[in-house]
Design a protein that fits this description.
Strand order of the largest sheet: 1-2
Subcellular location: Cytoplasm
Order of helices and strands: HHEEHEHEEE
Number of strands: 6
Number of helices: 4
Keywords: 4Fe-4S, Cytoplasm, Iron, Iron-sulfur, Metal-binding, Plasmid, Repeat
Structural class: alpha+beta
GO cellular component, one term: cytoplasm
Subunit structure: Interacts with the cytoplasmic NapA precursor.
Number of domains: 2
Protein name: Ferredoxin-type protein NapF
CATH class of the largest domain: Alpha Beta
Strand content: 15-25%
Length: 166
């Protein structure tokens, strides 16, 4: 399994969470395949969620706007061989930190409500709010939980690249 790296929400949303100042690339784009990108911006225009931005003429995702739905429209409109396959997962999963309201005895389930794959569930706890649990197998890394967390308690943890179905 890949190295476990804790990433801040701010750096994740800015696309600067990967080693070496990298970014979260659209699904199917790899570090190597991005070399073919000309910076034309067709992927930006194609994204129905409006989460793709060009940073240094390369596409990066901005999860502060919305989550990635893995629709593939960015890949369909790209004239270059930037996108490989139709992945349904990113090479990272969400990780709920200790500043989570529910972990600190304040009722909140915003992340669960936002998760399209129901990867976040809450288990009962005697004498307090339910506690969040993440099913890593169900988490696609789509970013839906990031923008809704009122205390920015959600971070990412890298997983094996093979999980990304690239």
């Amino acid at each position: 399994m890949g190295e476990s790296v804790e990433i801040s929400r701010r750096n994740f949303l800015r696309g600067s969470h990967k080693p070496g100042g990298g970014r979260v690339s659209p699904p199917g784009a790899t570090t190597e395949s991005l070399e073919a990108c000309t910076g034309c911006g067709r992927c930006v225009d194609a994204c129905p969620a409006h989460i793709i931005r060009l940073i240094a003429d390369r596409p990066a995702l901005d999860f502060s706007v919305a989550e990635c739905t893995f629709c593939g429209q960015c890949a369909e409109l790209c004239p270059e061989p930037v996108f490989i396959g139709r992945p349904r997962h990113f090479p990272h999963v969400a990780m709920i930190g200790e500043s989570c309201l529910a972990k600190n005895r304040t009722d909140c389930q915003a992340c669960r409500d936002a998760c399209p794959t129901e990867a976040i569930r809450f288990r009962p706890r005697a004498g307090g709010p339910f506690l969040p649990e993440l099913n890593e197998e169900a988490c696609t890394g789509c970013g839906a939980c990031f923008s809704v967390c009122p205390v920015a308690a959600i971070r990412t943890r890298e997983t094996d690249w093979e999980r990304a179905d690239v």
